[in-house]
Amino acid sequence: MEKRNNRLLNAKLNKYIIPGIMMSLALQLGNIVDTIFVSNLIGVEAMAAVTMSLPVETVVQLVGYCLGIGGSIAAGIMLGKRDKEGASKLFSATFIVTLLVGIIFSVSALFTAEPIARLLVSGESNLMHYTRDYIRVSMLGAPVIGIGLMMVSYLGAENHPELSSAYLIAANVINLVLDYIFLRFTPLGIAGASLSTVLGFLAAMVIFIFYIRSDKRNLSLVFLKARDFVIIKEAVVTGIPMLIFMAANFVKALGLNTIIMNLIGEDGMAVFTVCDNVLLIVEMLTGGIIGVIPNVAGILFGEKDYVGIRVLCKKMLKYSYMVLAVVFICVMVFTEQITILFGSSGGELGRQMVDSLRIFALCVVPYLWNKFMVSYYESIEETAIASFVTFLQNAIVVLPATLAGILIWKQIDGIGIDGIAVGFVVTEVVTAIAAYVFRKIKHKGSTFYIVPDKNPGINLDFSIKSTMDEAQDVNKKIIGFCRENNISAKKANLAAVCAEEMTVNIIKFGGKTSNWIDINLCIEDDTCNLRIRDNGVNFNPLEYSYDSEDFDIHGIELVKKISTSMNYIRAIDMNNTVISF
């Protein structure tokens, strides 16, 4: 098999990386900004209330996250299979369900916020009042937050990663400004921090207009009958790892809050909040890179482009660990400055924060690997492994590990705060080892990727520059390949003519952005599939018909006549055309 050079795919991945990082940066920045402003303008006790509210925050975001990520991956696979109608139905169903569930949360906020806060904090106190005020506003804003998070996932899979990042950046810039105004100049208190987040998500939705007007859009809201909502199961099944992640996060947040408050107290919660926010910073910088995987891998998996999946994973993992190395060094060198940023005023508590944070930093390397595994396996429909890793990482291991760490460290120094950090390090290492064992048991003899080493069938897979000189060699390459594999002269000629006509048209009319063309001829059973991928202007050959002497592509009409079928999709911001014989 001649290997394509993957320059086309790499170029598109680079386009996704920066918006992905910006999107992750903006997504996590809201939590970090809230914590910094609350700790410095209200106090450390109020900062602890933000952490105490995490279980409710997780539930509020649950539907938008799970249906958004699960739905966008499932829709990406459908688009990879050229099923635009099914993908639009799935998009519409997830939108409606997310909105309805958000409205239910809003209504319930009026009479459930205080009982929930009492349950989380265990009794009457300033911490309980802070927690109640924070979660009440979050629950009222559930429809806005849910739709915002759902749309972010779909935009990434819909050739618009830049709009995803723009939405979250705008939302968090607004959040940042309103945080300062509400906390400094109004009597809203901690409720102002929560309100600024909701208003940021709402105001930034003006960016969705650019998506609605885009000619690259594959998905649209369509009318659904009651029976059509069955399609929501596609989003639920694909989003099971994320559902487990959110559910486990709820258990984790509730369990850790209970363990730390009972064994150490508010000082322990303050230290844990700082460590948790450093983990958010790691997630903020590397999560955007790894987040490219579900946006792209689902489409490649739907196309059975296993070679492309490997290119994707290796590139994303390499970039993630480069960024992680910089973050790790900064945390270890500037530990004291980081704790001051989160409201530490020095003293014994400040020293404990510094010691714990340096231990905690050791968990970030296995943490990143575990996040990568979940993202990848979810994208190739290996939900069992992704769910297993998620459940271990966020529920099964972390609670007993943290409990044991605190109790053991109490015997060492009489305080136990450093045991929180030790528990997290143990959790990530144990999860990574257990995931390896689980994969080996489930898929004996498999490599990490699980998918085949090469694309199915007999393949000719190569790349050409968008020049007429190279286009002339396409015919020879395909004829020679067919001869070597005993393919009939008729099929060989059909494939060669179609490939040559399509590549010539791409070179003529693809525009300045078209610089490489990937060509794959796959012979599987009694079918020849010719896939042509280019990064030229958005052009659907199925919709072309002769309209003027200035734009007359006779070759496309010829291809339509001599092929059995032709399918087209604009995916990963590239034209993908599949022609079958």
Number of strand elements:
5
Average pLDDT level: 81
Strand proportion: 5-15%
CA-based shape: elongated
Radius of gyration: 26 Å
Q: Biggest sheet, open or closed, and with what strands and sense?
A: 5 strands, antiparallel
Task: Trace the largest sheet across and list its strands.
Answer: 1-2-3-5-4
How many DSSP H or I helices? 23
**Distance separating the two termini:** 20 Å
Low-confidence stretches: none
Q: What share of the residues lie within helices?
A: over 70%
Helix and strand element order? HHHHHHHHHHHHHHHHHHHHEHHEEHEE
Class of secondary structure makeup: alpha+beta
Features of the shown structure:
5-stranded antiparallel sheet, elongated, 23 helices, 581 residues
